[in-house]
């Protein structure tokens, strides 16, 4: 039977929640998605003009559509996650985290050993985790070892073998790291009480262990067994110190999963914090590579399912920054203030740090990729038609109306190109008129580039608000460049970004990379302009001080500055030193004017 056309497949899709799958001409799965309404969601791929190139390519390849109807959208989310993991379609997001995580094992033995492992063996042993780093596992095991004397040998400590005297205590017993159950120096009940307390610690609950040790310490102190009481006191200090490091939220916040997301053009970073008994017992950040233009809500929902499955979380409440679709029996909380809000902000900070760490790695390992991502981000944030690979920024400098100058700095691929920086002396403006100065310098810059057939920038940044921007636009109009080069103004006070013909400014996120590049440009232009302005004023001040001496002309001033480098040194020079340079008659005039 012939495959029905795409139009026919689309027209017969149901309006129910479900999962859809796109296939190419070779019947290879391209993409899996979920929908609240299958017909509307799938039809949107074929009716919209997609800005993202990857989406356009995907739509061109689609030859057939399959779907699975499910009762609710949360069921669709779970099914979508399972299908993505099973088939790994080319155009679905990539969850970069398939490594084997470490666990802490409490071995199913008469005297259980406790050790780290990456393998799950179904022999009745207990496994706590998985933990996101071996460092966390080692810290926990060091804590347990410092508080509880446990055996490390792998002997079969059955009752019969111990009673027959098969084993002898080892060095660990003499170092007081083990109480010698192999020679029946420690009974099973006491050992298992320790194991029970260790279980609670691994769950994040230190309360019972601390209470037990404090009671023991009091008993030893009353019996005047002070050395043993001191040992217990040291163990309490170790536990309390570790608890302080982990308890950073309200103890009333119990058994909660916290999720946050930070994303850019290509990647999203979802942080997961697991809370138990008022303590953070796990933090993990998942990196998601985007394949299409997925929203943060879609990515966060997918990541929540993935992370909860992976870490076998059964908590019935989660904190998230915005509403997401999850399992029906899970309570969604969107914190607005207080301790709950602070723990969500901590999760976001972890996600941002992970992203920054990845950026720093990419800058070193693959600078081109970092540049490409930054350019794509700036294009999106500043609503540009093309990536701003070549940016120029202008700034005026004049102090109390003297020596008006301007500076133009050039950035290529987000980095300064200092050999292309230019200074300008303002020629046609009298007095401190920043608007007219900006008009002049922009006109001169691009008139020259046009005459010399040099490449024009994709973006011009004007240091100033609407007034400065309007002045620069006049020059672009005269040169016929308006609309051919994107131009924006940045006002200093609140970092508002102005666009031509739009009175309402754009406010970028203060931590946005796009804003940081624009601020770097603006600061660099200011620094470059101010340096030139100061040099010009200094030269003017020097000349005027020497010119004030009667009978001293320009040639004499030039000779003196060439020899002595500054007016200060001319003042400090002796009559003989001055005479060697300009002759005794003029030397006397200079010397006498300063003395």
TrEMBL record:
**Is DNA repair among the key words of this record?**
yes
- Give the chief site where it resides: cytoplasm
Q: Show the NCBIfam families listed in the entry.
A: uvrC
Residues of the UvrC family homology region profile domain = 265-476
What task does this protein carry out? The UvrABC repair system catalyzes the recognition and processing of DNA lesions. UvrC both incises the 5' and 3' sides of the lesion. The N-terminal half is responsible for the 3' incision and the C-terminal half is responsible for the 5' incision.
GO biological process per UniProt: nucleotide-excision repair; SOS response
Task: Report domain GIY-YIG positions.
Answer: 15-93
The protein's name in its UniProt record: UvrABC system protein C
Q: Which Pfam families does its entry note?
A: GIY-YIG (PF01541), HHH_5 (PF14520), UvrC_RNaseH (PF22920), UvrC_RNaseH_dom (PF08459)
Q: How does it assemble?
A: Interacts with UvrB in an incision complex.
The record's Gene3D superfamilies line, in alphabetical order, gives: 5' to 3' exonuclease, C-terminal subdomain, GIY-YIG endonuclease, UvrC, RNAse H endonuclease domain
Any Gene Ontology CC annotation: cytoplasm
Q: Which family does it belong to?
A: Belongs to the UvrC family.
Keyword vocabulary terms for this entry: Cytoplasm, DNA damage, DNA excision, DNA repair, Excision nuclease, SOS response
What gene does this protein come from? uvrC
- Compartmental location: Cytoplasm
Which molecular function GO terms apply here? DNA binding; excinuclease ABC activity
InterPro entries, alphabetized: GIY-YIG_endonuc, GIY-YIG_endonuc_sf, GIY-YIG_UvrC_Cho, RuvA_2-like, UVR_dom_sf, UvrABC_protein_C, UvrC, UvrC_RNase_H_dom
């Amino acid at each position: 039977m012939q495959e029905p056309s795409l139009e026919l497949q689309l027209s017969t899709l149901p309006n129910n929640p479900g999962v859809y799958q796109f296939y190419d001409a070779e019947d290879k799965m391209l993409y899996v998605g979920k929908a609240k309404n299958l017909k509307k969601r799938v039809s949107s791929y074929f009716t919209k003009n997609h800005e993202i190139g990857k989406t356009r390519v995907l739509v061109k390849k689609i030859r057939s559509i399959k779907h699975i109807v499910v009762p609710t959208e949360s069921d669709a989310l779970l099914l979508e996650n399972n299908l993505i993991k099973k088939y790994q379609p080319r155009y679905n997001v990539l969850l970069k985290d398939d490594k084997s995580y470490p666990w802490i094992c409490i071995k199913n033995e008469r005297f259980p050993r406790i050790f780290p492992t990456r393998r799950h063996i179904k022999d009745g042993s207990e496994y706590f985790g998985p933990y996101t780093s071996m460092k966390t596992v080692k810290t926990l095991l060091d804590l347990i070892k410092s508080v509880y004397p446990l055996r490390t040998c792998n002997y079969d400590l059955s009752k019969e073998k111990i009673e027959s005297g098969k084993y002898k205590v080892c060095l660990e017993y003499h170092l007081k790291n083990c109480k010698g159950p192999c020679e029946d120096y420690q009974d099973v009940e006491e050992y298992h009480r320790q194991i029970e307390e260790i279980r609670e610690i691994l769950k994040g609950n230190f309360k019972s262990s601390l209470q037990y040790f404090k009671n023991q310490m009091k008993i030893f102190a009353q019996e005047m067994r002070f050395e043993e009481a001191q040992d217990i006191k040291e163990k309490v200090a170790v536990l309390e110190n570790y608890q302080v490091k982990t308890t950073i939220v309200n103890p009333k916040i119990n058994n909660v999963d916290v999720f946050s997301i930070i994303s850019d053009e290509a990647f999203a970073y979802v942080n997961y914090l697991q809370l138990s008994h008022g303590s953070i017992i796990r933090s993990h950040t998942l990196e998601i590579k985007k394949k299409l233009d997925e929203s943060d809500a879609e990515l966060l929902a997918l990541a929540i399912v993935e992370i909860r499955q992976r870490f076998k979380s059964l908590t019935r409440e989660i904190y998230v920054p915005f509403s997401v679709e999850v399992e029906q029996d899970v309570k969604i909380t969107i914190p607005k203030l207080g301790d709950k809000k602070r723990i969500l902000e901590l999760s976001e900070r972890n996600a941002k740090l992970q992203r920054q760490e990845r950026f720093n790695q990419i800058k070193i390992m693959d600078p081109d990729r970092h540049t490409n991502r930054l350019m794509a981000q700036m294009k999106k944030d500043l609503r540009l038609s093309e990536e701003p690979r070549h940016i120029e920024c202008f700034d005026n400098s004049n102090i109390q109306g003297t020596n008006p100058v301007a500076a133009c700095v050039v950035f290529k691929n987000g980095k300064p190109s200092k050999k292309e920086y230019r200074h300008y002396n303002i020629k046609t403006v009298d007095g401190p008129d920043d608007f007219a100065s900006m008009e002049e310098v922009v006109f001169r810059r691009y008139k020259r580039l046009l005459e010399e057939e040099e490449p024009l920038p994709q973006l011009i940044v004007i240091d100033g608000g609407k007034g400065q921007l309007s002045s620069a636009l006049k020059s672009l109009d005269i040169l016929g460049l308006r609309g051919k080069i994107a131009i924006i103004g940045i006002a200093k006070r609140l970092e508002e970004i102005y666009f031509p013909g739009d009175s309402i400014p754009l406010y970028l996120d203060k931590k946005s990379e796009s804003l940081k590049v624009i601020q770097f440009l603006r600061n660099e232009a200011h620094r470059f302009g101010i340096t030139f302005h100061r040099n010009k004023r200094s030269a003017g001040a020097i000349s005027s001080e020497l010119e004030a001496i009667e009978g001293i002309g320009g040639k004499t001033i030039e000779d003196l500055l060439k020899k002595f480098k500054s007016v200060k040194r001319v003042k400090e020079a002796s009559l003989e030193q001055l005479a060697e340079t300009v002759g005794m008659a003029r030397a006397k005039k200079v010397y006498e004017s300063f003395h």
